[in-house]
Amino acid sequence: MNELFSVKDQVVVITGGTGVLGRCIGEYLATQGAKVVLMGRRKDEGDAIVKEITEKGGEAMFLVTDVMNAEVVQANCDEILARYGRVDALLNAAGGNMKGAVIGPENNFFDLEVDAFRTVLDLNLTGTVIPTQIFLRPMVEAGHGSIVNFSSMAAFRPMTRVCGYAAAKAGISNFTAYMANEVATKFTPAIRVNAIAPGFFITNQNRALLTNPDGSLTQRGADVIRQTPFKRFGEPEELCGTIQYLISKASNFVTGTVAVVDGGFNAFAM
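RESULT FIELD:
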């Protein structure tokens, strides 16, 4: 049997594990035999996901976390190591946006709330740096591992509205490339750092921005579909194959890249 894409028995940590995308990826990897550790802020929801995974024969655990608090994330890491003894892969899926860091059509740059901008930058960028720093250490000690950060279409293009979020995601793409070189040259090329850039997927955070209550498209949603050659939004499970590739032996010579999963959005010109 060819095990090139196998993730069986890998210990995979997913921040943002109760979000639409993190949850879907975690559930999928569990079906492939990975030992999934979901981390997030909502304990009831996290426990429910773990229960669902285990009832289907998978292995999972949930830990309450705060990706902007190094002490909390370190405690999470210690608990994972106490249970499994290692961390094979880290998926930095935690992130989000908030109103004050968005500049709507009726506003301009002077309406940007700097405190909100700082919070969004912290949640997305610093909230990727801190887990990377903490979970990288056991990977270095073990001599292998894979880290996958979550970038965005907003990292490639200066999209309207999402001022803070776009700046943070552009930072994540840059940080990914930086860390790929840092880790390979100072520790080992057996630890790889990549990113995935999802196109437009309906999540709890963007649902009201892209769709109306009756399910029809908002103007923003229509603009997205117009610029997406596939003429639809992505389905969460359509990220799973790329994630599996990036944390499996199939991508052993791949590091510092941003894998785009967007239905052609970033390739569209006019």
